[in-house]
């Protein structure tokens, strides 16, 4: 099964709903966090088998901590590799952030200092991971609320890492929007400066404005029109890639979630024509 | 290492701040917005722990619970990459630091263990059944029982499984609790066992021997008299019938 079209994040709260979708309403693929689904048995293992029979699967990891000063966790990577092979997983992406330091996990995505030495360190780690997994890693631009000891621009930091490691880029359009608002830059200029040939995957999500000058990337709200507009603009500069709707909570209004998927399909069809979305 | 010492130290400081909530002065960061990270990190950890330990949270009540979580998160580095498994670290922290004694809650470690095991058993990888063929047709005590392999027997000092905490400090003893996952419903169940039953289940499972053989070993080891031994055998027969109903005993080989 190849991954293309518009998919949805697979969360336990909506597993029955996603498994019940058929025909036009059926997303093209689902994405799951491997950390929540590997090394398990019982009911959820059965659900994983059901979902793997019905949909192509992409994985979006949470704990690789590619920007960590620590050594890669090889035991964890061994488990990831096994999970990717067994499920099977078509694409494995992770965050350009760190979530672990001094062997202590923080379970949140912390921004890495945008610095030359961090670029070198991360390129080396991505190469190690790609060699070990025997597949390309796809790295996501993350949202962040403050830069930390930055010595270069965020877009230079991302571009250098992607180009030097030849990894894929997961372009999270909502994250670009959130960051452009929080750090006062032009999101289109930002996107235009990225290595767009390396984009292998797109994420779309909702966010919440919590202060006049601060937006939090929650994945709990509908996608705002400005982010849809940015998506429409961006994909004109990209080859067709799979697009994912990320929603982590607030699942009550299923019609609204479906309408977001349909909206993404509609925009993708218009821009990418029939070569992409059914 | 390709990372400069200075960059490493900044990341270290940032991570430490998120864990300890002290010294927010991170080089080159917005001193107000950096607090968002501490909030986000702590909320994720506290939510995961509260979901895993609802009874402990209820028993300790908010103030003690939050202090417990703060102490755990700042003092105990969690090397667990999977968030759903992270709550086990709270139990390990409590045991290592005798935390229950510190907060005058001597049954704390038992309660955490009991709550954690229910999750662990429900989520554990499916164990293979040792025997390819088994049935209920054979003499149940003379042949090897085939137990549902998705189980664990834990030993507690306080009867936290009864969910009655008033004067529980006065009920210190040895409590053996069987926790298993029903293979049809995939839910975990628990049952208090006598020490003899705990021994019989473990021995028959680990050594692949019959219940009678395991019982005879116990009788010899503890010099149990003939009348009591006969009663025990009858009791085991009843226990097996009950365990078949509960889907813990799958059959006999």
Q: How would you sum up this structure, described in words?
A:
- The complex is a heterodimer of chains A (278) and B (253).
- Chain A is built from nine helices and twelve strands.
- Chain A is an alpha/beta fold and 278 residues long.
- In chain A, helix 2 links the parallel strand 2 and strand 3.
- In chain A, helix 4 packs parallel to helix 5 and helix 8 packs parallel to helix 9.
- In chain B, the strands form two sheets. Chain B has a three-stranded antiparallel beta sheet. In chain B, strands 1-5 form a two-stranded antiparallel sheet.
- In chain B, strand 3 and strand 4 form a beta hairpin.
- In chain B, helix 7 crosses helix 8.
- The longest helix of chain B has 22 residues.
- The chains are: A alpha/beta (278), B mainly alpha (253).
- At the A-B interface, helix 2, strand 5, strand 6 and helix 4 of A face helix 1 and helix 2 of B.
Feature tags:
heterodimer; A: 278 residues; alpha/beta; 8-stranded parallel beta barrel; two-stranded antiparallel sheet; 12 strands; globular; B: 253 residues; 3-stranded antiparallel β-sheet; 9 helices
Task: Give a quick rundown of the structure.
The complex is a heterodimer of chains A (278) and B (253). Chain A is of the alpha/beta class and 278 residues long.
């Amino acid at each position: 099964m190849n991954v293309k079209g518009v998919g949805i994040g697979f969360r336990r709260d909506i597993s029955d709903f996603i498994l019940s979708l058929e025909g036009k309403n059926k997303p093209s693929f689902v994405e799951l966090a491997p950390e929540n689904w590997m090394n398990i048995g019982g009911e959820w293992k059965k659900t994983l088998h059901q979902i793997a029979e019905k949909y192509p699967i992409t994985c979006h990891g949470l704990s690789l901590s590619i920007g960590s000063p620590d050594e890669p966790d090889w035991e964890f990577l061994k488990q990831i590799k096994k999970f990717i092979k067994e499920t099977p997983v078509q694409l494995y992406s992770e965050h350009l952030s760190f979530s672990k330091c001094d062997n202590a996990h923080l379970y949140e995505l912390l921004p890495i200092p945008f610095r030359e030495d961090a670029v070198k360190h991360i390129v080396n780690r991505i190469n190690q991971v790609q060699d070990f997994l025997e597949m390309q890693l796809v790295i996501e631009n993350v949202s962040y609320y403050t830069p930390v000891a930055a010595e270069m621009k965020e877009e230079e930091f991302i571009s250098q890492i992607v180009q030097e490691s030849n990894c894929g880029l997961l372009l999270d359009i909502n994250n670009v929007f959130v960051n452009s608002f929080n750090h006062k830059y032009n999101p289109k200029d930002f996107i235009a400066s990225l290595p767009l040939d390396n984009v292998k995957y797109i994420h779309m999500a909702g966010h919440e404005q919590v202060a006049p000058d601060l937006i939090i990337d929650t994945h709990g709200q509908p996608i705002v029109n400005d982010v849809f507009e940015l998506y429409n603009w961006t994909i004109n500069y990209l080859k067709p890639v799979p697009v994912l709707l990320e929603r982590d909570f607030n699942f009550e209004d299923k019609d609204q979630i479906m309408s977001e998927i349909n909206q993404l399909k509609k925009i993708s069809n218009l821009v990418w024509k029939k070569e992409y979305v059914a | 290492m390709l990372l400069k010492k200075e960059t490493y130290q900044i990341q270290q400081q940032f991570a430490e701040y998120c864990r300890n909530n002290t010294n927010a002065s991170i080089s080159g960061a917005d001193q107000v917005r950096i607090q968002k990270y501490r909030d986000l990190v702590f909320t994720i950890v506290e939510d995961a722990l509260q979901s895993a330990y609802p009874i402990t949270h209820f028993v300790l009540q908010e103030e003690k619970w939050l202090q417990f979580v703060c102490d755990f998160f700042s003092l105990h580095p969690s090397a667990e990459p999977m968030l759903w498994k992270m709550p086990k670290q709270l139990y390990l922290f409590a045991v290592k630091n005798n935390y229950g004694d510190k907060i005058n809650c001597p049954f704390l470690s038992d309660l955490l263990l009991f709550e954690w095991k229910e999750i662990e058993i429900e989520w554990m990888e499916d164990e293979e059944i040792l025997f390819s063929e088994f049935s209920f047709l054979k003499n149940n005590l003379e042949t090897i029982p085939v137990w549902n392999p998705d189980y664990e027997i834990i030993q507690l000092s306080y009867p936290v499984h009864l969910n009655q905490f008033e004067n529980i400090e006065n009920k210190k003893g040895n409590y053996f609790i069987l926790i298993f996952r029903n293979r049809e419903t995939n839910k975990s169940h628990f049952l208090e066992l006598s020490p003899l039953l705990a021994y019989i289940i473990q021995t028959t499972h680990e050594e692949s021997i019959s219940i009678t053989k395991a019982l005879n070993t116990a009788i010899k080891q503890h010099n149990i008299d003939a009348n009591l031994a006969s009663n025990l055998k009858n009791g085991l027969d009843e226990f097996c019938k009950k365990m078949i109903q509960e889907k813990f005993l799958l059959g006999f080989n």
